[in-house]
Amino acid sequence: MSTTRHAEIAGAGLGGLALAIALAQKGWSVRVHERSDDLRMFGAGIWLWENGLRSLEALGVEQTATARAKRIETMVARDQDGRPLLRRSFGTEDRLILPPRADLYDALIARVGELGVEVELRSTAIGITPRGELEIEDGKTLQADLVVAADGVFSRLREALLLTRRVDYLDEGYTRLLIPRRPDDPDTEVTEYWSGSRRLLYDPCTDDVDYVCLCCPVDDEAGRRVPVDKESWLASFPMLGGIIERIDDSGRWDRAMRVTPRAWSRGVAAIVGDAAHGQPPNLGQGANLTFQNCLALAEYLERDADVATALARWEREERPLTDHIQRWTDLYGRVASAWPDRFAHRRSQVLETVTRIPWVDRQLNKAARHRPLGAR
């Protein structure tokens, strides 16, 4: 197969860079367009499950991205009384690792440079066609064998291709940030604390920082406030004062979104990442699915010289798992947040029973235990 095929990618986030690497490793020439002045990532942690780690390994960045990260041994959700509702253990073939997002992003940037991928900053894509044309704001129209929209949940390029079916604004949101680590902080256990409709997620991250995520309904004005209203969160989680007091004025609140496209491609144009499957972070699979789908896309393009045919097969084979996780991460958020405070104890009883059912465990962890196409 020819090694001279060319791709133009709009968006230099995690998905855009991951796909650029996957294609460049297959001999493609790749150019990535980023509208910002530089490449930077906001300060939070990121969950890398086994499927994501295997994908990153195949992209040549796994070791660099996770060099500082803590290895997680257990994950537990606890109710307002400290009672465990859900528990999951991890091993050498079923891993969860939590590096800072910036470490992962820097590893992807370095790998892009090694492979000679061209990255154009201050280059905004404003149009895309199924014929392989990418229109840039400065008036240029670029032709490629493959054009890709990796421009996020609100992708204007997805809509230019008429691929949007629905973009849903969900009823919860998240403030994600890093806090200074203390010597007595847990090293290997992720804990999600539930109190009424609020959740506080504590994640060991590196020797220097921990990752914290605060989740609340969109109508919870005090809960979504940034800088974080520490007094309000302390009232919900009085036992977590040692964590809450370390929260500074950084962080950002994002409303949960769910993207449902009509298709992942049209002609020789495709969508990846949040543009294709934006979802709430309850199962921590959004980025992992992005990595495995980008890796798989390069594999299908390697197997079939016709780009449109390869894109159709890619979606047919890979999308069912992504759609499954979208449904289950949404369900998780609804179950966690939709119970009035007076029913908190009933919620605990139900969840203790349900999460012990093997079938439920398989549905929640279906992506994490998936072996991505193209991975070792």
TrEMBL record:
Pfam families: FAD_binding_3. The keyword Transcription regulation does not apply. GO terms for molecular function: FAD binding; monooxygenase activity. Residues 9-301 form the FAD-binding domain. Keywords: Monooxygenase, Oxidoreductase. The keyword Kinase does not apply. InterPro entries: FAD-bd, FAD-dep_Monooxygenase_BioMet, FAD/NAD-bd_sf. This is FAD dependent oxidoreductase.
